[in-house]
Amino acid sequence: MKILRTPDARFANLPDFAFTPHYCEVTDPGGTALRIHYLDEGPPSAGPVLLMHGEPSWSFLYRRIVASLAARGHRAVAPDLVGFGRSDKPADQSDYTYERHVRWMSDWLAAARLSSITLFCQDWGGLIGLRLVAAFPERFARVVVANTGLPTGEGFSEGFQRWLEFSQSTPVLPIGQILAMGCRRSLSEAEQAAYEAPFPDESFKAGARRFPALVPITPAHGSVAENKAAWKVLEGFTKPFLTAFSDSDPITKGGERLFQDRVPGTKGQKHVTITDAGHFLQEDKPDEIAGLIHEFIASTK
Questions:
Q1: Among 292, 300, 200, which Cα is nearest to 246's?
Q2: Active-site positions?
Q3: 281 in Cβ contact with 293 (< 8 Å)
Q4: Closest Cα to residue 117, out of 286, 271, 264, 241?
Q5: In this structure, are residues 108 and 88 in contact, taking their beta carbons and an 8 Å threshold?
Q6: Would you call 298 exposed, middle or buried from its count of C-beta atoms within 10 A (0-12, 13-18, 19+)?
Q7: 112 and 87 in contact (C-beta within 8 Å)?
Q8: pLDDT digits (tens, 9 = 90+) for 172-223
Q9: Residues 211, 56 contacting (CB under 8 angstroms)
Q10: pLDDT at 113
Q11: How many CB atoms neighbour CB 195 within 10 A?
Q12: pLDDT tens readout for residues 227-274
């Protein structure tokens, strides 16, 4: 497995991102060592809030939420998935599979020794994060899902179909523009450049290219059986489980109902709709999300 590592200079002077990088090394079953980057801010003794990003973003997406949670006394932990951010990037698309991502992040979670976790997950952060909940339910105290799902081969939205076709056909994957198009507010040129920072050229984007094709939207896709097994665990998950989907996401709109219908921990929770927010609601409403997480933790201790 050929591994690419983005030069540190690419991450200098990013807006609102003066965080100390932390690293953990995991070993792929094939023997390749992979370095995973994560943010870790706030009191080390506080219960961790695990913030998981999706496609094609990285922990920069959570910069304002991390700062706000840390200021409120929480420990905010935001990893970069393999292939994204400051984490290592396998160079070949064939090196990326759903199950490998779950394995890599499972190993990272065990090495980080996190427990009593509050999970906030969006996009692929949910596809992977909810698999972690199913694999290690004892480590999680509560969950917030936003603009995500855990698909089992039963179809997809028109919005996702358009994204899949674009991501697999465009000769240059414009990461900054993709983030901007998925927000209701206008991202500055500096913010868009920050989303491009992990990718010096197209060779670094194998993970970003591959992710859309890995979503198990048909019975023939990989990980359908594994996700069905994860749903069995979630259908017995009684710890607090909150949905916080946005009102303006064409890809996941309405997806909160599946969680509310199937996960017992959703019962009696004050589910919310984040208004005037797109797919990347962390960019549109970071203060509202940080406040929501803070209040959720306070009300479910």
A1: 292
A2: 123, 249, 279
A3: no
A4: 241
A5: no
A6: exposed
A7: no
A8: 999 999 999 999 999 999 999 999 999 999 999 999 999 999 999 999 999 9
A9: yes
A10: 94
A11: 25
A12: 999 999 999 999 999 999 999 998 898 999 999 999 999 999 999 999
pLDDT of residue 259: 98
- Full 3-state SS string of the chain: CCEECCCHHHHCCCCCCCCCCEEEEEECCCCCEEEEEEEEECCCCCCEEEEECCCCCCHHHHHHHHHHHHHCCCEEEEECCCCCCCCCEECCHHHCCHHHHHHHHHHHHHHHCCCCEEEEEECHHHHHHHHHHHHCHHHEEEEEEECCCCCCCCCCCHHHHHHHHHHHHCCCCCHHHHHHHCCCCCCCHHHHHHHHCCCCCHHHHHHHHHHHHHCCCCCCCCCHHHHHHHHHHHCCCCCCEEEEEECCCCCCCCCHHHHHHHCHHHCCCCCEEECCCCCCHHHHCHHHHHHHHHHHHHHCC
Give the span between the Cα atoms of 264 and 262, in whole angstroms. Answer: 6
Instruction: Assign residue 39 a region (left: φ > 0; alpha: ψ between -120 and 50; beta: otherwise).
Output: beta
- Cα–Cα–Cα angle for 42, 256, 142, nearest 5°? 35
Structure tokens at 87: 């984490």
For residues 134-146, average pLDDT: 98
CA distance readout (Å), 228 to 116, 122, 129, 136, 233: 25, 19, 15, 16, 9
Do 172 and 78 contact (CB within 8 A), yes or no? no
